[in-house]
Amino acid sequence: MSQLSPEKILGLGLGFWNSKALLSAVELGLFTVLAEGPADAETLRVRLGLHERSARDFFDALVALGMLERENGLYRNTAETDLFLDRAKPSYVGQILEMSNLRLFSSWNRLTEALRTGAAQSENAAEGDFFGALYADPEKLRGFLTAMSGISAGPAQAIAAKFPWRDYKTFVDVGCAQGMVPVTVARAHPHLTGGGFDLPQVRPVFDDFIAQNGLSDRLRFYPGDFFDDALPKVDVIVMGHILHDWNLEEKRLLLAKAYEALPKGGALIVYEALIDDERKTNAFGLLMSLNMLIETPGGFDYTGADCQGWMRDAGFAQTRVEHLLGPDSMVIGVR
User: Fold this and answer.
1) Residues 148 and 17 in one domain
2) For range 236-249, the mean pLDDT
């Protein structure tokens, strides 16, 4: 019989050490500085404005965590951190980490209270309208929408590659945020036209992003509230990281509205960090559901089987689940 060890338990319990070291590095712009070239500890310390007491420990901890490399006393980014955590590169995904550092880190400290009460614990929890407060602040909204691009970039590429877009002509991304999904899909499939549907406040951010990517002639913004307004009538509707924000009744309403907007043979793509059907292996999906507990009044994540059942109840004739990448999968419903 092998000897039991508390190492796994302690590693998980103290995992926030690792997380916060990375989040602080992103906040400080460490990877952006090193994208300019390797630097020694003292140069880095001065560039970042750090106290001399623990700067070296901080840099070496990031080496040990696999976020930096060090050779002959010079620190440099890894291939991954150089590509994904340099703010000057279009591949930057640190927006979601910036938001996590600014908001989620402190909110998750109240998880126990959320579990005991079932009540949201975000900074806007008292008002009971997380999205209303967020969308009312242009600066916070732009940061949030940019962060959503960070978590949508990978799934967007997989959706562009795996879904049979050749069979369709038009599409719209509902809850489009900055527009990462429309841009990625339109770039991969030049025959498509469409755009993004979101609250009117999103238009300037969306239009800027589409223009920057040279796609204003094929992608447009559809303003509206998906609970109050009809969805655009297109061949394919995409809902990414949307359904999990809402309670079951609201989820069913959104699926029904998508069904009504689609033609016969049209398709709905729902993608999330779907919980595995056995609810045993996709820890990220389960933790994301806890994040919805903290952030929203009634949101929760779900399994692919759950979503297929709701789609069939809404009238979709065919449904299937297809893995995208990492913890993300898509559920496809065909009317």
Assistant:
1) no
2) 96
